Amino acid sequence: YVFTPGNPKWKRNSLTYRILNYTPKMRKTDVDEAIRKALSVWSNVTPLTFRKVEDKEADIMISFAYRDHRDNSPFDGPNGQLAHAFQPGEGIGGDVHLDEEEAWSKNGRGYNLFIVVAHELGHSLGLSHSTDPGALMYPTYSYTDPNEFLLPQDDIDGIQAIYGPSNA
Amino acid sequence: FPVAPEGEDEGKTLQLVESYLQNFYDLQRDHQPHLRNKDENPLVEKLKEMQAFFGLEVTGKPDLDTLEMMKKPRCGIPDVGQ
Predict the structure, then answer these.
(1) Nearest to A14 by CA among A37, A46, A45
(2) Position A64 pLDDT exceeds 60
C-alpha cells in the first residue's frame, strides 16, 4: 500500500457523502446500493462512518461527469480512464468523479460501479495506488463479484495505518 | 486488406506511451527535444518506472507486455508524483 504524498487524512471519523447525479445506465436504487456497499468496504475495517446527505455540501461528493468537467482532469470517453478522486480535504477534497461514458453496471458486464467506487474511495480517504496486483488500490480495473468481494489485506493494512482498526 | 504502414503504427505506439507516461508518471511534455543531450531520455526513464511499478520486465522499451498494460482500463489518478 502507498499513502498519498503528504499523508492527508480526514480529521473526523464521521463523514458525509452525497450523490450529485445518476447514470442513466443503472437503476437509481442500484447506484445507491453500489455506493453504499463501496463505502462499507472501508467503514467495516476502520472507525470511519459515512452518512448520506441529500442537498447540502458533503465531505465526499460523488458525480458522473463527461470529458472536460472543470477540474483540470478531463475524462477520455469509453474505456481508458474510468474515474478519479481527490485526496482528503475541504472543497473538492474527497470527491469522486466517474466517467459517464463508461458502461456502468451492477454485475460483470461493462464496468462494475461498486468496484470502481470502492477503489476511488481509497483515494478519497488518503491512499495512493498499490503495486500489489491483488490490491483494490492497484491502478487497473479487474472484476470481482460484489457478493464475494473481500477487502484484500494490503488495503486493510494501508487504511488502518491511517485511521486505525474498526471500533466494532 | 490494407495494413497500416509500419511508421504509422510506431507513431500511434509512441503517442500511447507518451500520453500514458504524462498522465500517470509525471513525464513532462518535452517542448525542446533538440536541447536535450543525447544520453538523456526522460521517456525511457519514466517507462522503466512504470514497468517497475507494474512488476513488468524493466526494459525501457515499449514491449508487448508494457503496451498491453497501458491499454487496460484504469483509474485516472497518477501512479506516482501526485
Answers:
(1) A46
(2) yes
